[in-house]
Amino acid sequence: MNHEQPNMIAEQKFLYVYILKCADDSYYIGVTNNVELRVEQHNSGQSETSYVFSRRPVELVYVEQCQDYNLAIAREKQIKRWSRAKKEALIKENWDKLRVLAACKNETSHLKRSKE
Q: Per-residue pLDDT tens for 54-70?
């Protein structure tokens, strides 16, 4: 009987949330299970209707690993809603700036109400 341990690393499936910087200086956020292949596909222009088709070449500027499909999709949607400044703070891993940019600043903010 063979009692070898399975190769856990080879069996793990990850998804990656990634950010591309496009030639027009815009950002594209996506999810994939193979970052290198996906960047290659974006740069080869496989789909004329894709956002990056007319914005090539693209450069990979950020990758974040997720172990759960639903979390990866939620994270992609979250980052897509962020301001450019907030995306750039994430890309630069500037956690202090990201925290400041994430603070709620509108008039109905719970922070403003708690001071009254």
A: 999 999 999 999 999 99
Nearest to 58 by CA among 28, 84, 15, 34: 28
- Spell out the long-range contacts of 102-110 with Cβ–Cβ below 8 A and sequence spacing 24 or more: none
Are 90 and 116 in a shared domain?
A: yes
For 50, residues 6+ apart whose C-beta sits below 8 A from its C-beta are 42
Considering the domain architecture, whether residues 21 and 77 belong to the same structural domain is answered as: yes
Can you give the pTM of this predicted structure? 0.80
Is residue 2 in some structural domain?
Answer: no
Q: In angstroms, how far apart are the furthest CA atoms of the chain?
A: 71
d(CA 33, CA 70): 13
Question: Which carries the bigger pLDDT value, residue 44 or residue 108?
Answer: 44
Q: Per the domain annotation, does 69 fall within a domain?
A: yes
Is 7 inside any structural domain? no
